[in-house]
Amino acid sequence: MSQAETQSKLYLPSDAVVASAHVSGMDAYHALCKEAETDYEGFWARQARELLSWKTPFTTVLDESNAPFFKWFEDGTLNASYNCLDRNIERGLGDKTAIIFEADGGEVTKVTYSELLAKTCQYANALKSLGVTKGDRVVIYISMSIDGVAAMQACARIGATHSVVFGGFSAQSLRDRIEDTGAVAVITADHQVRGGKPLALKGIVDEALGLGGCDAVKNVLVVKRTGSPINMVEGRDLWLADLAASQPTTCEPEWVGAEHPLFLLYTSGSTGKPKGVQHSTGGYLLHAALTTQWTFDLKADDVFWCTADIGWVTGHTYITYGPLALGGTEIVFEGVPTYPDAGRFWKMIQDHKVSIFYTAPTAIRSLIKAAEANDAVHPKSYDLSSLRLLGSVGEPINPAAWEWYYKNVGGSRCPIVDTFWQTETGGHMITPLPGATPMVPGSCTLPFPGIQAAIVDETGKDVPNGQGGILVVKRPWPSMIRTIWGDNERFVKSYYPADFQGKYYLAGDGAIRDAETGYFTITGRIDDVLNVSGHRMGTMEIESALVSCTELVAEAAVVGRPDETTGEAVCAFVVLKRPAPTGDEAKAIAKQLRDHVGKEIGPIAKPKDIRFGDNLPKTRSGKIMRRLLRSIAKGETITQDTSTLENPAILDQLGQAY
Ligand code: WT7
């Protein structure tokens, strides 16, 4: 669809939605943008005072003296867990349900704010009893659970910096993260249950620690999920419930400076190993709360459901911190969208009367397929009348999926907020506000008030609307990444490159603004980062995983190709240490390589297609021709100039995917 065609399809929020929204109408949106433009620091300071409780009020707002290591509200002190729990209880919300947890098998457990605080305090005291203190790092390797949220809140309470590792990562990936953070403790569960199957968590922690390099880890705290036997190492491993049971249910919060690192979260970059994105306490929490208020328009009687895992930033900001900071009621779901059938999401929305639903395009696309094949799992077979707002995140949503979501899930009455942001941005950056912004399917529309998003060329010059370019953010914002843990230089190089005189934050995405409306559409990553089912992966990481299979692989190159369901799919081009295989042999080796990548990184990184060649297409100077690989991966007829190719015959071999 051309830009002009896309823009002709404007969807307006209804008058009722506009009337009741926190940001009501475009005039209100523009007024907020104007306020931020006129008095940038004043705008953010006002929000920070209104939305957060400070132990010591801040007197400085933005400190740019050591750019790009920006500081926000630096002399203010606060505690994130105090803001998410105690503060709500002090406002009379102690008996309000904070979390409705639904397990994989359907069992429901609810906790009130008072109960969640008590649990958090017991976990915090348990950590303290083991000597964990402010500034220590704690790795959390756990599936979706009340315990997972409480563990994160407990770390925040004592000023320990948490680093949650998604339960789908392998022992090797987990080890790398434990080592890089220098964690003193790991919090995990015996197992996780997904789609009716128990999967090891503690066993993988044991394996990770056994790989070496994690000497700082003194204790492993284990949550009992299935109770099936696991190995417990004497003196190191403890059942969290046993340790916590004897602890007091109160714990004085550790008041930390606003810049104190609340968490590290690893994400893939274009080169080398994953980066530990460091987030602050004050600025991060402010944006988590503010975006939950304005983008999700969260109100007292809402039931909010973000389907992301707490192992990703979406789960941090829109499960553990944002909705709780506002005293909301939220769903935490352990399972998968297709178990026991593909109607699970719709059934849960019906059962729990969910009013705000936030999920990823990849999930929507796979549920469309299932719904079209079977009426029983179609949204129309459920009562979804409780919904009032829908959200999308993680990758561009194609207009067809948007329209289906709008009509079939939202009953053509719920605005959809297509939220563009990143692990590094901490919260929404470009998004519609539901009671203000006219929506265009496939466009994340306009910057959140205060966010100075722009599109520039390679030299940092603004490009006119209608012309594509590089997405940047011109001014620092409170919830931005502070640094890459332990690697300030890589932080500067990755996000504040010299190309823009170190002035602009480089998102790593390409984007275009509509000539008339100025609406942003994200056109995809401009670096070697892939987005598979909303999960971010570096092509180099997967290449390293492949070549680490030293008995088989001589060389590997990885590119992405479009995929109908997962957005992008991983395609690997592999040169073996023996002639390129074909037929059944190729299939068997492809499986072996997929399993190897699964072991090195995790199942999410397994290549969908593997193509074997006796060589990779290279220029005479020896550079891999990645553009050509991308064409081959897409199955395009090769029209590119291949005259510089050293060995044109290999193109035939690479034509077959296994
Ligand atoms: C990358 C960030 C943001 C939380 C989940 C992913 C892509 C994200 C959108 C959107 C188009 C999007 C970008 C971005 N992305 N949201 N609404 N429209 N693209 O966080 O793993 O850090 O990935 O996801 O490419 O750079 P992440």
UniProtKB/TrEMBL annotation:
<keyword id="KW-0067">ATP-binding</keyword>
<feature type="binding site">
    <location>
        <begin position="418"/>
        <end position="423"/>
    </location>
    <ligand>
        <name>ATP</name>
    </ligand>
</feature>
<keyword id="KW-0460">Magnesium</keyword>
<dbReference type="Pfam" id="PF00501">
    <property type="entry name" value="AMP-binding"/>
</dbReference>
<feature type="domain" description="Acetyl-coenzyme A synthetase N-terminal">
    <location>
        <begin position="29"/>
        <end position="84"/>
    </location>
</feature>
<dbReference type="GO" id="GO:0019427">
    <property type="term" value="P:acetyl-CoA biosynthetic process from acetate"/>
</dbReference>
<dbReference type="Pfam" id="PF16177">
    <property type="entry name" value="ACAS_N"/>
</dbReference>
<dbReference type="GO" id="GO:0005524">
    <property type="term" value="F:ATP binding"/>
</dbReference>
<dbReference type="GO" id="GO:0016208">
    <property type="term" value="F:AMP binding"/>
</dbReference>
<dbReference type="InterPro" id="IPR042099">
    <property type="entry name" value="ANL_N_sf"/>
</dbReference>
<dbReference type="GO" id="GO:0005829">
    <property type="term" value="C:cytosol"/>
</dbReference>
<feature type="binding site">
    <location>
        <begin position="394"/>
        <end position="396"/>
    </location>
    <ligand>
        <name>ATP</name>
    </ligand>
</feature>
<feature type="domain" description="AMP-binding enzyme C-terminal">
    <location>
        <begin position="541"/>
        <end position="623"/>
    </location>
</feature>
<feature type="modified residue" description="N6-acetyllysine">
    <location>
        <position position="623"/>
    </location>
</feature>
<feature type="binding site">
    <location>
        <position position="314"/>
    </location>
    <ligand>
        <name>CoA</name>
    </ligand>
</feature>
<comment type="similarity">
    <text>Belongs to the ATP-dependent AMP-binding enzyme family.</text>
</comment>
<keyword id="KW-0436">Ligase</keyword>
<feature type="binding site">
    <location>
        <position position="525"/>
    </location>
    <ligand>
        <name>ATP</name>
    </ligand>
</feature>
<feature type="binding site">
    <location>
        <position position="547"/>
    </location>
    <ligand>
        <name>Mg(2+)</name>
    </ligand>
</feature>
<protein>
    <recommendedName>
        <fullName>Acetyl-coenzyme A synthetase</fullName>
        <ecNumber>6.2.1.1</ecNumber>
    </recommendedName>
</protein>
<keyword id="KW-0547">Nucleotide-binding</keyword>
<dbReference type="InterPro" id="IPR000873">
    <property type="entry name" value="AMP-dep_synth/lig_dom"/>
</dbReference>
<keyword id="KW-0479">Metal-binding</keyword>
<keyword id="KW-0007">Acetylation</keyword>
<dbReference type="GO" id="GO:0046872">
    <property type="term" value="F:metal ion binding"/>
</dbReference>
<comment type="function">
    <text>Catalyzes the conversion of acetate into acetyl-CoA (AcCoA), an essential intermediate at the junction of anabolic and catabolic pathways. AcsA undergoes a two-step reaction. In the first half reaction, AcsA combines acetate with ATP to form acetyl-adenylate (AcAMP) intermediate. In the second half reaction, it can then transfer the acetyl group from AcAMP to the sulfhydryl group of CoA, forming the product AcCoA.</text>
</comment>
<dbReference type="InterPro" id="IPR025110">
    <property type="entry name" value="AMP-bd_C"/>
</dbReference>
<feature type="binding site">
    <location>
        <position position="533"/>
    </location>
    <ligand>
        <name>CoA</name>
    </ligand>
</feature>
<dbReference type="Pfam" id="PF13193">
    <property type="entry name" value="AMP-binding_C"/>
</dbReference>
<feature type="binding site">
    <location>
        <position position="536"/>
    </location>
    <ligand>
        <name>ATP</name>
    </ligand>
</feature>
<feature type="binding site">
    <location>
        <position position="553"/>
    </location>
    <ligand>
        <name>Mg(2+)</name>
    </ligand>
</feature>
<dbReference type="InterPro" id="IPR011904">
    <property type="entry name" value="Ac_CoA_lig"/>
</dbReference>
<feature type="binding site">
    <location>
        <position position="509"/>
    </location>
    <ligand>
        <name>ATP</name>
    </ligand>
</feature>
<dbReference type="InterPro" id="IPR045851">
    <property type="entry name" value="AMP-bd_C_sf"/>
</dbReference>
<dbReference type="InterPro" id="IPR020845">
    <property type="entry name" value="AMP-binding_CS"/>
</dbReference>
<dbReference type="GO" id="GO:0003987">
    <property type="term" value="F:acetate-CoA ligase activity"/>
</dbReference>
<dbReference type="InterPro" id="IPR032387">
    <property type="entry name" value="ACAS_N"/>
</dbReference>
<feature type="domain" description="AMP-dependent synthetase/ligase">
    <location>
        <begin position="93"/>
        <end position="477"/>
    </location>
</feature>
<feature type="binding site">
    <location>
        <begin position="194"/>
        <end position="197"/>
    </location>
    <ligand>
        <name>CoA</name>
    </ligand>
</feature>
